[in-house]
Amino acid sequence: MASDKPRILNDSRDMAWSLIPLVALCLLIAAIASQCSFSPGGPTAGPVPSFDVDAGLQYDARELGFPIRQPEVPDEWQANSGSRSIIAGAQGGDSSTVGYITEAGRYVRFTQSDAGPTELVSFVAGGSRAVTDFREIDGREWVVYGGEGVEPLWVSDFGDVRILIGGSGDEAEFTTLATAAGQAEPLEP
């Protein structure tokens, strides 16, 4: 009875030769299941999800107790998301948010709420932010909340509602949305 292993099982090459068939088998199974792809140029952007902004904001106008506006955004912008949330706090309330993908592929959020500006900014930002600037757009003041390394949030008080603009958009896209928000009339409930 031989107590020594065969010579082929005595070094690290043996492990490599054992793993090669296992890795090949895993790749074959993944390819058959279509759960992987090869993209030498890096990832590519998929289609932008679609959101029916007309129906979403009309529903919010009927259900929420504050005026809801539907800004006229450029045709190249695509609404891709919508949500409603409850904002906690002393001046909390409800909120309605619509997300847009701009022509440049950046995300811009449009949030309307009857919550106070501090609660609204804290809810969206996940914490407090300092006032860093002011913008005057079409006769309406927008307060800019920002800081080092964070996306800016623009907030304006429309009386019964506060409007917040945020996201990865640039200043021109924020200005476009702020202008459209100032020109939009509240929807009929």
Summarize the structure in words.
The chain is elongated. It is of the alpha+beta class and 189 residues long. The longest helix has 22 residues, at 12-33. Strand 2 (93-101) and strand 3 (107-113) form a beta hairpin. It has a domain at 53-183: MucB/RseB, C-terminal domain (Phosphorylase Kinase, domain 1, 2-Layer Sandwich), CATH 3.30.200. The chain has helices spanning 12-33, 53-63, 117-125, 171-183, and strands at residues 78-87, 93-101, 107-113, 130-137, 140-146, 153-157, 162-167. Helices cover 29% and strands 28% of the residues.
Helices and strands, with pairings:
Elements: H1 12-33, H2 53-63, E1 78-87, E2 93-101, E3 107-113, H3 117-125, E4 130-137, E5 140-146, E6 153-157, E7 162-167, H4 171-183
Antiparallel strand pairs: 1-2, 2-3, 3-7, 4-5, 5-6, 6-7
CATH architecture of the domain at 53-183: 2-Layer Sandwich
Helix share of residues?
25-40%
What is the count of helical runs?
4
Q: Name the strands of the widest sheet in spatial order.
A: 1-2-3-7-6-5-4
| Low-pLDDT residue spans | none
Provide the residue-averaged pLDDT.
89
Short description:
The protein is α+β, with helices and mostly antiparallel strands. The protein is 29% helix and 28% strand.
